[in-house]
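Weekly sync, protein design subgroup
Attendees: M.S., D.O., the rotation student, P.L. (late)

Item 1: inverse folding check
M.S. brought a backbone from last month's batch and wanted to see whether the design step gives back something sensible before we order anything. D.O. pointed out we never logged the input encoding, so this time it goes straight into the notes. Structure tokens as presented (310 positions):
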């Protein structure tokens, strides 16, 4: 069994409009934009990162906004809900705030004994805010949201799969313990000393058509390891089980490896270091366009092409 994975690192999705995406996460949800850079493989497209005040692993939602991309089609083989943790008692504040800001399809429910608010993002991506006593580092309050109700970081991701058994076995190998099942959803928690974003859920839905990715779809889920040595150990262990795993890829702010799960969801293993302050001061995170070295020669062209965010 793998012992180096410490919970979620980040979740990356696709969007249709960079400005709407930026406004939703920074103004409505009150997260900090901790980095604006570009897609390594498509530099004419932003890669935007939103998180807590430092961009701590376990708090960061990232997006590729492809202008005019078609909407994703929900189905099996995808992340169906990305959930953030909020403090106990904060639901009333968030319901009122999101209603005032015109957020769509807000609903409140209780699951696994927790109060949760479900809602849609700008591209009908499904989110939840879940009341939790999990302890995170440094919530961002730059959008005027009081610290005692601010989003802390990720609570969990829910995988909607046609058959969850093999992915459940994989999660067990990755160090997750099965906790409980309710209403067709099984919850897993990372064993040992993980970060506060330590939950993954599997929803088995055999009758659904496969999902088609597009705007509003999660592209991949990243899990955190402390450093490159831990990542090498994890890669070797996953390869030994028969999975096809990419070589280590330098993403500037972390190192990454990727593999496809039995249920179809793309998993990434990402290092906690070097972090988002490697190329700009902590008090200026996300304020300037940062480019991978291989795309720096395109700066003038990209500055004209990429839409302003603020």
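Designed sequence read out in the meeting:
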């Amino acid at each position: 069994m793998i012992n180096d994975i410490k919970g979620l690192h980040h979740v990356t999705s696709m969007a249709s409009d960079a400005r709407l995406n930026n406004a939703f996460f920074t103004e409505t949800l009150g997260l900090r934009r901790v980095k604006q850079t570009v897609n390594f493989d498509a530099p004419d497209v932003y890669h935007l990162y939103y998180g807590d005040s430092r961009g701590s692993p376990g708090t960061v939602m990232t997006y590729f906004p492809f202008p005019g991309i078609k909407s994703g089609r929900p189905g099996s083989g995808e992340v169906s809900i990305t959930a953030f943790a909020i403090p106990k008692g904060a639901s009333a504040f968030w319901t009122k705030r999101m209603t005032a800001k015109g957020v769509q399809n807000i609903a409140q429910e209780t699951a696994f004994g927790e109060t949760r608010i479900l809602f849609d993002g700008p591209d009908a991506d499904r989110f939840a805010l879940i009341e939790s006593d999990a302890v995170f580092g440094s919530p961002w309050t730059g959008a005027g949201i009081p610290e005692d109700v601010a989003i802390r970081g990720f609570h969990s991701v829910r995988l909607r799969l046609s058959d969850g058994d093999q992915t459940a076995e994989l999660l067990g190998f990755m160090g997750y313990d099965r906790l409980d099942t309710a209403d067709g959803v099984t919850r897993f928690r990372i064993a040992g000393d993980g970060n506060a974003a330590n939950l993954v859920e599997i929803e088995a839905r055999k009758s659904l058509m496969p999902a088609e990715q597009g705007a509003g779809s999660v592209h991949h889920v990243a899990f955190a390891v402390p450093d490159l040595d831990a990542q090498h150990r994890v890669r070797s262990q996953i390869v030994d089980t028969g999975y096809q795993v990419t070589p280590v890829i330098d993403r500037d702010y972390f190192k990454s490896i990727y593999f496809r799960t039995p249920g179809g969801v793309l998993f990434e293993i990402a290092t906690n270091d070097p972090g988002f302050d490697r190329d700009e001061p902590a008090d200026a995170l996300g304020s300037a366009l940062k480019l991978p070295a291989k795309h720096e020669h395109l700066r003038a062209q990209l500055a004209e092409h990429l839409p302003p965010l603020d």
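Discussion: The two ends are 45 Å apart (CA to CA). The CA atoms of residues 40 and 235 lie 22 Å apart.
Action: P.L. to compare against the previous round before Friday.
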